[in-house]
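Progress against Task 2.4 (sequence-to-structure conversion) is shown through the following example record, which the project officer requested during the mid-term review.
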Amino acid sequence: DLRIPKGAVLVGNGGIIDIEAVVQPSDATEKTKYHWSIDAPFATLQNTTSNICRVTSAPKSRGARVTIKCNSTDGSRVFGSIQFIIQ
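C-alpha cells generated for the chain above:
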C-alpha cells in the first residue's frame, strides 16, 4: 500500500511530497528492498531504495496526472500504486 500524508498536495514548479510504502503483513520478508517508478516526465523520484520516496514536481507541471508505483523485489510481483494530479 502507498500512502501520502493526510492533506498533502504536490504543487507544480518544484513542489515536494513524500510517499510511504507500507508492507503487509508485518512479518513479511524482504521489507527492506523497494523499487519505485514513475510514469510521466512531470515529476522526479528521489530516495528510491527505502520505504519513503520523495517526489518533486517539474516546472510547468500543474494539472499533470502522475502515477507512482512501488514493486516488491522478492519475486512475488506484489506492488502498490498511487495516482494524483499536480496542483
